[in-house]
């Protein structure tokens, strides 16, 4: 059964336990309603209060929200602060200098701990080193690093100097890296020799060399290399410098550069409905405020908690819920280099047991694969580990099917821990719609209710509210502090993508379809645009299509998603070659070649699971590819729709055949 079908038949409700409610940061429905009411009554006053109470400002703001040029909203825009100061220095001032900030667990199981004092010292030394290389506020740095303390140090050091970072996930290809270097106009690249994943060394620096060879990266003056494995790498003497040499001899104090609240802390690329990824630009103050508050609210973080988010810093989840939110909140967190299945499928459970993790945040895809692994290998079932430290479980990135939710709740959480199913996006900066563990009755598969101050709604094509129970477009009716500010270098695209005229240009359009039940709970139905969600990773169908047609053999390609038990959605590509349609062995060989090609163009996550060759694609007489039909063909279902407008209906049968 697909996730959507099983979600729609779900009726169970799990109320929070009284003892949890009693100790919660936001306690009970009354506590939640009080905050929502405050935001309704005095929207800007609500946000101003939170920003004053939770952040340290070097120059206090007097303006809260500037709405004079919608949708280019500004928050706290006459205030100044430094993000890294708010993540590190503040904890030294409040007596937590020796508290562990990061417990780093490497791929091979060795552990390194750094306290807030040590982390600040490292960030300062590295920031001083970058400064000595001539970098300053306003410059852009690409960070292409594995999960490591160094990745956090690099991001925080940029924040300390007001250098805007753009992290590129280590699994992305040289081509994707080059495109981002060019688009963001980077003058600095921070990378590693290699990364370790699942016992294997995976090169990183060579991808940087390849990216440079593609041209357009001439603005990059220095490449800083973290020596992770000591593997052999090509070296360009004038340009390349080791991270430890950059830090060497630098003082452990680096004055934070106070930046405007709206200063771009980072640009993170994500897929949209065109072939070109969008550089989502985030602010400093508004972003940090929400990162900090949502860590405290959604996970009910307490001073002694051990928190672990399994995301990679290459994604927004790693930015907000590893590098910024937990540090701003003064948490102790696990940072994990490896993969959930190495050395065996019990790795996550073993780590929770070893570090006595209290708050655990992961993706439905990981849960689904671990359900399978636990069935296949009973010794690695979570019941064989001591998981009694767990208090709150979270999920993110894609809808979770109720079966996986129930397994997570019972087998991992022992039927004791609330599961917070957090709906949000790269663009929203932080959680938007999510249960609160001491407030919300949980319904498996629903992200439940919007956080206080988040004016989420479901509307029709004209922007009118739909009744409860009716599906529609998920929108956010008012700006919020951690929202996307623009698409880097393309404000028009920002406006068109997120504030379309059809909705009056007033509402933020998330790009998800959603439903609300009789209790007002939100149920996310998936993307309404040409964006796929594969293992919680966002992929544009056009992006994969452009990669395919760049191959010399390919004349035309159409890409759609198909529901998949493990990855949520899988990529299915329909391809027309410049030569005759291949069959049998030859077809299989070309399909393999195209898969590898896509991995090289974008990254392995974009590889089509299924490639079908046709003499043609189903098109209307006006030449439009009928993706609606391709989606049905990809699922292997009978076509019941009217195909009379098709130029060449016979093609559907040909495309229906797997190789
Ligand atoms: O479709 C929604 C899905 O992931 C999209 C955002 O992807 P990305 O920007 O990569 O951010 C992922 C991490 C925040 C959304 O438009 N999505 C995210 N969280 C959920 C979800 N779908 C259902 N339930 C969720 N909890």
UniProtKB/TrEMBL annotation:
Residues 543-624 form the AMP-binding enzyme C-terminal domain. Residues 32-87 form the Acetyl-coenzyme A synthetase N-terminal domain. Its cofactor is Mg(2+). Acetylated. Deacetylation by the SIR2-homolog deacetylase activates the enzyme. It is an enzyme of class 6 (ligase). GO terms for molecular function: ligase activity. Mg(2+) binds at residues 549, 551, 554. Gene3D superfamilies: 3.30.300.30, N-terminal domain of ligase-like. CoA binds at residues 197-200, 317, 535. It comes from the Bacteria. It catalyses: acetate + ATP + CoA = acetyl-CoA + AMP + diphosphate. The modification N6-acetyllysine is found at residue 624. InterPro entries: Ac_CoA_lig, ACAS_N, AMP-bd_C, AMP-bd_C_sf, AMP-binding_CS, AMP-dep_synth/lig_dom, ANL_N_sf. Residues 93-480 form the AMP-dependent synthetase/ligase domain. Keywords: Acetylation, ATP-binding, Ligase, Magnesium, Metal-binding, Nucleotide-binding. Its EC number is 6.2.1.1. ATP binds at residues 397-399, 421-426, 512, 527, 538. NCBIfam families: Ac_CoA_lig_AcsA (TIGR02188), PRK00174.1 (NF001208). Catalyzes the conversion of acetate into acetyl-CoA (AcCoA), an essential intermediate at the junction of anabolic and catabolic pathways. AcsA undergoes a two-step reaction. In the first half reaction, AcsA combines acetate with ATP to form acetyl-adenylate (AcAMP) intermediate. In the second half reaction, it can then transfer the acetyl group from AcAMP to the sulfhydryl group of CoA, forming the product AcCoA. Belongs to the ATP-dependent AMP-binding enzyme family. This is Acetyl-coenzyme A synthetase. The gene is acs.
């Amino acid at each position: 059964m697909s996730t959507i079908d099983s979600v729609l038949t779900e009726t169970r409700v799990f109320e929070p336990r009284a003892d949890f409610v009693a100790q919660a940061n936001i306690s009970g429905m009354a506590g939640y309603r009080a905050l929502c009411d405050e935001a309704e009554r005095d929207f800007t006053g609500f946000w101003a209060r939170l920003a004053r109470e939770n952040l340290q400002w070097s120059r206090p703001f007097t303006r809260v929200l500037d709405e004079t040029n919608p949708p280019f909203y500004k928050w706290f825009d006459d205030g100044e602060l430094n993000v890294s100061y708010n993540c590190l220095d503040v904890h030294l001032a409040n007596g937590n200098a020796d508290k562990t900030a990061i417990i780093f667990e490497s791929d091979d199981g060795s552990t390194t701990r750094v306290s807030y004092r040590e982390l600040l010292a490292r960030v300062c030394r590295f920031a001083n080193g970058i400064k000595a290389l001539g970098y300053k506020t306003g410059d852009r740095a690409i960070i292409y690093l594995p999960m490591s303390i160094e990745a956090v140090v690099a991001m925080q050091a940029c924040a300390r100097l007001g250098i805007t970072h753009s992290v590129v996930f280590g699994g992305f290809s040289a081509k994707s890296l080059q495109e981002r270097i060019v688009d963001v106009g980077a003058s600095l690249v921070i990378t590693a020799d290699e990364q370790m994943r699942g016992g294997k060394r995976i090169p990183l620096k060579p991808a940087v060399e390849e990216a440079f060879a593609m041209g357009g990266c001439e603005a990059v003056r220095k490449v800083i290399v973290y020596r992770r494995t000591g593997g052999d790498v090509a070296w360009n003497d004038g340009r390349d410098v080791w991270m430890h040499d950059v830090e060497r001899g630098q003082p452990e104090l680096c004055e934070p550069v106070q930046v405007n609240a709206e200063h771009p802390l980072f640009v993170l690329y994500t897929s949209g409905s065109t072939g070109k990824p969008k550089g989502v630009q985030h602010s400093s103050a508004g972003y940090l405020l929400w990162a900090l508050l949502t860590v405290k609210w959604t996970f009910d973080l307490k001073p002694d908690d051990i928190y672990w988010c399994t995301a990679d810093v290459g994604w927004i989840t790693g930015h907000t819920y590893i590098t910024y939110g937990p540090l701003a909140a003064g948490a102790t967190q696990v940072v994990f280099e490896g993969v959930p299945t190495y050395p065996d499928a019990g790795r996550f459970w073993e780590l929770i047991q070893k570090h006595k993790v209290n708050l655990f945040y992961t993706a439905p895809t990981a849960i689904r694969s671990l359900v399978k692994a636990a069935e296949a290998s009973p010794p690695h079932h979570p019941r064989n580990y001591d998981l009694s430290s767990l208090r709150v479980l979270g999920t993110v990135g894609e809808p979770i099917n109720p079966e996986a939710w129930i397994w997570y709740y019972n087998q991992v959480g022992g039927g004791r821990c609330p599961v917070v199913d957090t709906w949000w996006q790269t663009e929203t900066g932080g959680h938007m719609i999510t249960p609160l563990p001491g407030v919300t009755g949980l319904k498996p598969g629903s992200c439940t209710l919007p956080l206080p101050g988040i004016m989420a709604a479901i509307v029709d094509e004209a922007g009118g509210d739909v009744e409860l129970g009716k599906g529609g477009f998920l929108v956010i009716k008012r700006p919020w502090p951690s929202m996307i500010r623009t698409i880097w270098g393309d404000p028009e695209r920002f406006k068109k993508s997120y504030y379309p005229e059809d909705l009056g240009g007033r509402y933020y359009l998330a790009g998800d379809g959603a439903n609300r039940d009789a209790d007002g709970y939100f149920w996310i139905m998936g993307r309404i645009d040409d964006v796929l969600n594969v293992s919680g990773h966002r992929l544009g169908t056009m992006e994969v299509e452009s990669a395919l047609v760049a191959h010399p053999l390919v004349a035309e390609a159409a890409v759609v998603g198909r529901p998949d038990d493990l990855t949520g959605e899988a990529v299915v590509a329909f391809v027309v070659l410049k030569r005759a349609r291949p069959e049998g062995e030859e077809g299989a060989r070309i399909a393999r070649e195209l898969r590898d090609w896509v991995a090289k163009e974008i990254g392995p996550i974009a590889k089509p699971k299924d490639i079908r060759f046709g003499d043609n694609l189903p098109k209307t007489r006006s030449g439009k590819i009928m993706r609606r039909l391709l989606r049905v063909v990809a699922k292997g279902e009978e076509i019941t729709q009217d195909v009379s407008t098709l130029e060449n209906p016979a093609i559907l049968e040909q495309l229906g055949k797997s190789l």
